[in-house]
Design brief:
It contains one helix and five strands; from the N terminus they run H-E-E-E-E-E. A five-stranded antiparallel sheet has the order 3-2-1-4-5, with no helix packed on it. It starts with a helix and ends in a 7-residue tail after the last strand. It has 78 residues and is an alpha+beta fold. The chain has one domain (5-71): SH3 type barrels (Roll), CATH 2.30.30. It is globular. It has one helix at 5-21, and strands at 27-32, 36-46, 49-52, 64-67, 70-71. It is 22% helix and 35% strand.
Length: 78
């Protein structure tokens, strides 16, 4: 499925904003397919993907709604 230009822009903005905020050890809550929420410990970046402490790199910042217990939305300017 092709992403719309609007969705691509939101994804890029979320990536840029998240890279300003996230640091190693942060606890991040992120939605994954099929919409379930997962909490993981942030380790580092692999391109636009966040990598967990356990090495899973299937988390995108556009789907993050909480960092260290604080509600966030990286799709909007910070």
């Amino acid at each position: 499925m092709e992403l719309s230009e609007e969705r691509k822009l939101a994804c890029k903005k979320a990536e840029v904003n998240a890279k300003k905020v996230l640091k190693q050890g942060d606890r991040v809550r992120c939605a994954k397919c099929p919409g379930t929420k997962r909490v993981f410990t942030f380790s580092h970046w692999d391109g636009c993907w966040m990598v967990s402490k356990s090495g899973i790199n299937d988390y995108h910042p556009v789907n993050v709604d909480m960092v260290n217990g604080v509600t966030v939305d990286f799709r909007h300017d910070r």
